[in-house]
Structure to design on (445 residues):
């Protein structure tokens, strides 16, 4: 099997008409069971005037209201511990996993035994598409335990027949030890943690020639498909870097770039993907940016009907050069709606700041965006903090170049603070790039 291009050729090369027929069949099954078995969904569908038998085409999904994380959180608070959108019986439960968000009460997600099988199968498939093979040594730097990505990729690596090092998102020195002594060939981690590992490897005197790494699958935060970040990942670790995507409420690891690196591929036989204009709530056209809305087609325990991810992306059905027919999102996740910075009428995302900073080899991988309010004038301020790896004698010139670049990219001129390398905190999990101190002062953007 290791020499075949596709993990599941019949599914991955399915004719679009056949794939959509399968999606409709599974969507109808899912809506009917949610309506009959979940008071949460039945109330929502009744309020929208929708009955299961009215879902006759895939376009009819637009009749169903979207569901947000806040609504799920409120449902679980009102009906603890799991809310009334839990559909499977307790005898089917296999695992519980909460969301990994940094704000609010985590939303618990239940996996049934069949869900675990499907999650493992899909994750194995998308990892195969990125070129992972049975003889690989996988160094799993995703978090384990309650957080989902470490578990799903571990199960998938076992299914693929790989040798797995389940180290998790910690112990950076141990990561370096395993990379250099055991010779791991695939690294799984957040982009931030992978860049930190690359930084520490260089500080320890290692070069990419000392590693056997050939690939890295990076998720948990955006940025891998940003050209400047991908270049830093690939140059710093001597690998090909692939974007890997998942959500706790939907699927921990269910979309990934193939070896062509032309956007993350969706497992459309298990997930119905929409991209919606957040202002009109109408579908976006091919290549247009909107909010990802995802529906479970096969999830048993805690299915989501039209989950509002808050992630911006595009979607295209155009066949990839790899030959797979499932839809994909070129550019990956472009930003989160709740991460949008609104400053002096301009709107931008941390990933845009990242793309500018990582073009300059003189700067380290770390940065921070600080929003605050001048106590005297009452005006908002935006400061972007970066680290300079070279002699600080060139810092002022670098500041001028960055301000000019930010003005062009962000349509606004922030202040720029330059610190020495190593000043900003490093992370082994999801990097927190934005600090909005205006909220604590009761000032909005």
């Amino acid at each position: 099997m290791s020499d075949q291009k596709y993990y599941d050729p019949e599914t991955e090369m399915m004719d679009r008409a056949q794939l959509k027929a399968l999606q409709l069949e599974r969507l109808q099954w899912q809506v009917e069971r949610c309506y009959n078995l979940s008071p949460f969904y039945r109330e929502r569908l009744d309020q929208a005037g929708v009955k299961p038998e009215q879902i006759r085409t895939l376009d009819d999904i637009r009749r169903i209201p979207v569901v947000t994380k806040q609504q799920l959180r409120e449902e679980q608070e009102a009906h603890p511990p799991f809310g009334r959108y839990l559909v499977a019986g307790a005898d089917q439960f296999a695992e519980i996993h909460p969301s990994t968000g940094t704000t609010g009460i985590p939303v618990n997600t239940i996996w049934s035994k069949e869900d675990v099988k499907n999650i493992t199968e899909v994750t194995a498939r998308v990892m195969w598409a990125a070129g992972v093979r049975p003889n690989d040594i996988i160094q799993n730097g995703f978090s384990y335990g309650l957080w989902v990505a470490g578990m799903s990729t571990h199960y998938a690596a076992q299914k693929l027949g790989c040798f797995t090092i389940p180290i998790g998102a910690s112990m950076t020195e141990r990561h370096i030890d395993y990379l250099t002594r055991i010779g791991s060939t695939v690294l799984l981690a957040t982009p931030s943690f992978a860049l930190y590992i690359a930084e520490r490897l260089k500080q320890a005197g290692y070069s990419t020639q000392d590693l056997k790494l050939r690939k890295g699958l990076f998720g948990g935060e955006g940025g891998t498909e940003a050209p400047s970040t991908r270049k830093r990942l690939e140059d710093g670790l001597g690998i090909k870097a692939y974007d890997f995507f998942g959500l706790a409420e939907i699927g921990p690891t269910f979309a990934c770039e193939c070896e062509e690196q032309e956007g993350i591929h969706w497992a459309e036989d298990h997930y119905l993907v929409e991209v919606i204009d957040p202002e009109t709530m109408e579908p976006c056209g091919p290549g247009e940016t909107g909010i990802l809305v995802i529906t479970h087609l096969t999830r048993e325990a805690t299915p989501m009907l039209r989950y509002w991810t808050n992630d911006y992306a595009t979607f295209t059905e155009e066949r990839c050069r790899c030959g797979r027919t499932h839809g994909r999102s070129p550019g990956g996740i472009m930003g989160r709606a709740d991460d949008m910075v609104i400053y002096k009428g301009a709107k931008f995302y941390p990933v845009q700041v990242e793309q500018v900073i990582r073009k300059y080899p003189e700067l380290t991988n770390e940065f921070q965006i600080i929003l605050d309010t001048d106590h005297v004038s009452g005006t908002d301020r935006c400061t972007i903090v970066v680290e300079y790896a070279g002699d600080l004698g060139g810092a002022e010139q670098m500041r001028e170049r960055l301000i000019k670049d930010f003005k062009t990219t962000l349509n606004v001129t922030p202040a720029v603070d330059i610190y020495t390398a190593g000043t900003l905190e490093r992370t082994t999990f999801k990097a927190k790039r934005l600090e909005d101190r205006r909220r604590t002062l009761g000032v909005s953007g």
Residues 16-37 form the longest helix (22 residues). Residues 30 and 287 are 28 Å apart (CA to CA). The chain has two domains: 1-337, 340-441.
